[in-house]
Each structure stands twice: as structure tokens, then as C-alpha cells.
Amino acid sequence: MRHALIPLLLCGLLAGAARAETPPATVAAVDLARYVGTWYEIARKPMYFERHCVRDVTATYTARADGTLRIENRCLDRDGEEWRARGKAQVVPGSGNAKLKVSFFWPFTAPYWVLWLDGDYRAALVGEPGRDYLWLLSRTPQLDPALEAAALARARELGFELDDLIRPQQGG
């Protein structure tokens, strides 16, 4: 009986390895004119550059004349000190605007993939191919529970581990 479990375990391990090697799917297309503006961070996987961000975490995207996006990330730390990071994003050709290359420190870039997007652009799930980073964003400081559940269900379907999500305080 134990020997019968070995092939099943191996299949499970191989399926998990294949899933981890396959990048998560993005949305088909993003209307950048609708995507620009301010987004509130509802939840995120731990990230070194945001380790100090505990309150009022936002990302503001502004369209630039050269076709790139200006990014300004803002947050407050435990002492109420404001932190800001400015960067830019460039669309990956052929991605329907769902994949961007983001740079906060030239010449380094990082992938920014829109993995799920509410049809009304009220909420978005953003990640990267390795599944190490993930952000749940909302147009408002609090997200409708149904939208949050839909976004997090999609993240699980795409193979993201969600046990370590950080939820910053928004709105005060």
C-alpha cells in the first residue's frame, strides 16, 4: 500500500514543480487610461523595500508623454514618518499593457504583471512571474469584501502562497 503512494506523491511533486516554473497568467489587456491614478494597498506579500510601510500605503500612476508611466509609492512608518519612492514603468510590447517593467533604481527593472482586474477598475492584483511578490490594490482605502475574496481566490489559482500577507492600515 505504501508503495502505491509513491507514484502519487511523485506526480504531486512534479505537478507542483511544473506549476512553480510556469509563470502566472496575466489579464488579457489593461486600459492604461483607466488604470492610472491612485491605488491603495490592501494587502501584500513581504517585500524588503516596503518593510517600514505600515499605514496609508498608496501607489500613484501618471501617464507620461513618452508612453511610460510615472510611479510614486507613498507610505507611513510606525512613527508616522512619510516614505516615498519614485520610479517609472514601461509596457512590455505584445502584453496588452498587462506586463510592465518597473524601475526605481536605474538601470534595474522588475516585472509588474496585472494578474486580475475588476471590470470597473476598482481593484487589481499585481505580481511577478516568480510568485515572490504580490499586491492587492483598491481605488478606495477599504476594499469590498466580495472583490477581495475574488482577487485572493485568483491569486491562489495562480499558485501564490497567501499565508504571509501583510495588511497595512489605511485611512488614518
UniProtKB/TrEMBL annotation:
One Gene Ontology CC term in the entry: cell outer membrane
Pfam family, any one: Lipocalin_2
Main location: membrane
Keyword DNA damage: no
SUPFAM superfamilies xrefs: Lipocalins
Signal peptide (from-to): 1-20
GO molecular-function term, one example from the UniProt record: lipid binding
Location(s) in or outside the cell: Cell outer membrane
Record key words, sorted: Cell outer membrane, Lipid-binding, Lipoprotein, Membrane, Signal
Gene Ontology biological-process entries: response to stress
Residue ranges of domain Lipocalin/cytosolic fatty-acid binding in the record: 30-170
Function: Involved in the storage or transport of lipids necessary for membrane maintenance under stressful conditions. Displays a binding preference for lysophospholipids.
Family, as annotated: Belongs to the calycin superfamily. Lipocalin family.
PANTHER family, per database record: APOLIPOPROTEIN D
Name of protein: Outer membrane lipoprotein Blc
Organism this protein belongs to: Crenobacter luteus
